[in-house]
């Protein structure tokens, strides 16, 4: 059974006349008749009954037509989706990103890109750096916006920007009046931090390891907003980047002076994964945009 036979059958079922169907298919009537006869022979049953000068589907034909219509529709949709995927003006882009980037950065990037290419469709996900990279390596994502971390040789990572990280304390904390501090001065403080696998936690562990300090961890969480809530409740202090929309009413921010303290954000993708033209265009757009990025520009 050949694909062309199914298309011929579908057309004849709609037109119900060999001559008209042959003309619509741009082939001779005998050629159409032979194709339908061969199809019926392969199936072992007749599909049409004669009716005057035309033909009509019999019970077998109606059942077969119902199935074939769905198959042809799916093939048409598959061709359309492939066209859109390979057309840079269309296509779908799957992007995962750190939760803290979902307030300003990612909405700004997506909105700016869609202003230029409105037919592109985005699938967006939020997760920890570790989880995102696992999904990326599995092949279920095009890109992830994550902090710099150790990755497999199959992952490409391009630095986009850096964010300074600060110590946040409650307003009534003895250190709240200070503008800056060293991490060594905080060795006796209790910290509330994100769980392992999150980018800010990775930076936190690395900094204290470099200084050969063992921080006291009171609580671990999965949301920066929850961590700030714990700080406001005087349950500890924390190390985080300045996150857009962070309520600073009840907390104070201190710079760190004894060691460079920043989070590096970049774009990661799988080296051997085929990226649609729209995805490649988005990658180039991000790299170009971030080369001159000023956080003050992140307005809609």
UniProtKB/TrEMBL annotation:
Key word rRNA-binding present: no
Chain ranges of the HTH lysR-type domain: 1-58
Pfam families per UniProt: HTH_1, LysR_substrate
GO MF annotation list: DNA binding; DNA-binding transcription factor activity
Assigned keywords, A-Z: DNA-binding, Transcription, Transcription regulation
Keyword Cell membrane on entry: no
InterPro entries assigned: HTH-type_LysR_regulators, LysR_HTH_N, LysR_subst-bd, WH-like_DNA-bd_sf, WH_DNA-bd_sf
GO cellular component, one term: cytosol
Recorded family membership: Belongs to the LysR transcriptional regulatory family.
Name of this chain's protein: LysR family transcriptional regulator
Organism encoding this protein: Paenibacillus oryzisoli
Source organism phylogeny: Bacteria, Bacillati, Bacillota, Bacilli, Bacillales
